[in-house]
Specification:
Helix content: 25-40%
Number of strands: 23
Structural class: alpha/beta
Number of helices: 17
Number of domains: 4
Shape: globular
Radius of gyration: 23 Å
CATH superfamily of the largest domain: FAD/NAD(P)-binding domain
CATH architecture of the largest domain: 3-Layer(bba) Sandwich
Length: about 575
């Protein structure tokens, strides 16, 4: 039976009064699609692996992915047969030519095999009448290449992988919150993590660590992300000396449910849904004459926000997504989750009336800088999935490529790790115990203060600063003021007080660590956005409205130097496709 850190084991390792320490050849931090796929690959090669997950793996944010996973399965339409090269072109164009094209080729070539692997593992994809996997059109794609399981694709894939994880009896440290990385002799050799159900800080030694902790959308007040998406793994790597890449590129999904900002899948428009303003006008042809409602997400989000800013939205800052013409049968078969969300959270049945939608932060194109093998600049530390920037999305991600990235690179990076490690880390217990003591001291300081800053208040202020000053449209003056505000919030976050002194399931402790992580990442986003004086993909500046390839066909690189975020630039790897004007 799978061991999730039983009380028997915990008591045994604490009998001598020392902190609990665990050793694995490979340790994966994150229990979503990337982490689970990597764990299965490492385990399948006979290597001992452990998974640390902030929540139960089935509560990872991967479960919320709705629309589908891209793969050129060779199906034909009026334009011919889809190919991985066509998929790669759409991806590079969608990225506004900032993606590294060799990484894109790896992902797109591996896509069909990845989907078939998932199918053979038990993922229940929707089907065509002839039995083939069904594919729907998504924004920015030249073919209907998004494979889907109704509108619960991430849910289906995550449950499939988790079932295999249970079968393999892979060690999962469930509801453990990673608090630091342990660097010894320049190599990442382990980490610490807070066991939430006991309040103990544990030490972990590993020959290799894979960061698979997802995005950091909760730095924004409007986000489709789960509350757990606070960028913890990205921040830990940053503090440990890793470089972050392209952090200014933050994707706003055009259609979140107004008010709650729950995701309304792009699949709704892929199935024929249309956007209309308060005058009943289908406005997308004004912004994307050829693609209309199926333009890429950055284009659609800016279009909706422009309609709202120019007074053509509805009171409450939203437009309508109209599905009523699709009919009840299609909606029930292909968009059942969207219908249920609309009924439960807005009191609206999309069969009968349009759904109010507005843009909200959705995805982070930037993340930990890694090479095509998932390796960071720190030996022993790897990253994959949304927390990493490999970079396959560049300045804007196409819908359907995020699920693909998690599974393709979760597997690929695990293969690299398996080839490099077969034994546990030799980091000493004493080194781990010293790091545990540091984290314990931080917690004691927060819980020992009689007075200090309130995490909730600081978090709300940070989120509002990010949405209002580093949102869909940006400019120099507004962002400069925003950086001053973030800097002040960072200083105040060092004086957080945790009112509840009991460590058992103390969410105040977790939220304090999360807030400090979010403030750090917010500064990386903000400085990258301020210094990129052009508009490209999701990064739209009203004071620099055009793309500037002569100066900014470069990846931004954020480093932490003496506590400050410093931005430099590095080259983009091109090759297959020359940059062109990006029109839809």
């Amino acid at each position: 039976m799978m061991n999730t850190m039983s009380s028997v084991l915990r008591d045994r390792v604490r009998q001598d009064g020392m902190p609990p320490i665990h050793r694995h050849a490979c340790l994966i931090i994150g229990g979503g699609l990337t982490g689970l796929r990597a764990a299965l690959e490492v385990s399948g090669r006979g290597i001992d692996v452990g998974v640390i997950s902030k929540v139960h793996p089935l509560r990872s944010h991967s479960v919320a992915a709705q629309g589908g996973i891209n793969a050129a399965l060779g199906n034909a339409d009026g334009a011919g047969a889809d190919t991985w090269q066509a998929h790669a072109f759409d991806t590079v164009k969608g990225s506004d030519y900032l993606a590294d094209q060799d990484a894109v080729a790896l992902m797109c070539r591996g896509a069909p095999g990845t989907v078939f692997d998932l199918e053979h593992m038990g993922t229940v994809f929707s089907r065509k009448a002839d039995g083939r996997i069904a594919q729907r059109p998504f924004g920015g794609a030249g073919f209907p290449r998004t494979c889907y399981a109704a509108d619960r694709t991430g849910h289906n894939i995550l449950h499939t992988l988790y079932e295999h994880l249970v079968t393999r009896e892979i060690q999962v440290y469930e509801e453990f919150f990673a608090t630091s990385l342990v660097i010894e002799n320049g190599r990442c050799a382990g980490c610490t993590a807070l066991e939430q159900k006991t309040g103990y800080v544990h030490g972990f030694a590993a020959g290799a660590i894979l960061m698979a902790t997802g995005g950091f959308g909760r730095i924004y007040s409007r986000s489709t992300n789960a509350l757990i998406n606070t960028g913890d793994g990205t921040a830990l790597a940053f503090r440990a000396g890793a470089t972050l890449k392209d952090m200014e590129f933050v994707q706003f999904h055009p259609t979140s449910l107004a008010g709650t900002n729950i995701l309304i899948s792009e699949g709704a428009r892929g199935e024929g849904g249309v956007l209309v303003n308060r005058h009943g006008e289908r406005f997308m042809k004004r912004y994307a004459p050829a693609s209309g409602d199926l333009a890429p997400r950055d284009v659609v989000a800016r279009a909706i926000q422009t309609e709202i800013m120019q007074g053509r939205g509805f009171p409450g800052d939203y437009v309508h997504l109209d599905l009523t013409h699709l009919g009840k049968e299609l909606i029930e078969n292909r968009l059942p989750g969207i219908r249920q969300i609309s009924i439960d959270f807005a009191g609206i049945d999309p069969v009968n009336e349009p759904v109010p939608v507005q843009p909200a932060q959705h995805y982070s194109m930037g993340g930990i800088d890694v090479d095509n093998n998932g390796a960071t600049q720190i030996p022993g530390l790897f990253a994959a999935g949304e927390c990493a920037c490999i970079s396959v999305h560049g300045a804007n991600r196409l819908g359907g490529n995020s699920l693909l990235e998690t599974v393709v690179f979760g597997k690929n990076v695990a293969e690299v790790i398996a080839g490099e490690t077969g034994q546990e880390s030799n980091v000493s217990d004493q080194t781990l115990e010293t790091e545990i003591s540091k984290i314990d001291a931080r917690i004691d300081d927060m819980a020992g203060c009689a007075d200090g800053e309130n995490t909730g208040i600081l978090g709300a202020e940070l989120k509002e600063v990010m949405f209002s000053r580093f949102g869909i449209f940006r400019d120099e003056e507004t962002m400069a003021d925003g950086i001053t505000m973030i800097r002040s919030l960072g200083e105040r976050s060092e004086n957080i007080v945790v009112r509840d002194k009991n460590r058992i399931f103390n969410q105040g402790i977790v939220q304090a660590f999360e807030l400090q992580n979010m403030v750090l990442l917010a500064m990386a986003v903000a400085k990258g956005a301020l210094e990129r004086r052009e508009s490209r993909g999701s990064h739209a500046r009203t004071d620099y409205p055009t793309r500037d390839d002569s100066r900014f066909m470069m990846h931004s690189l954020a480093r932490l130097e003496h506590g400050s975020v410093v931005i430099t630039y590095g080259p983009v790897r091109a090759g297959m496709f020359e940059p062109k004007e990006r029109v839809y």
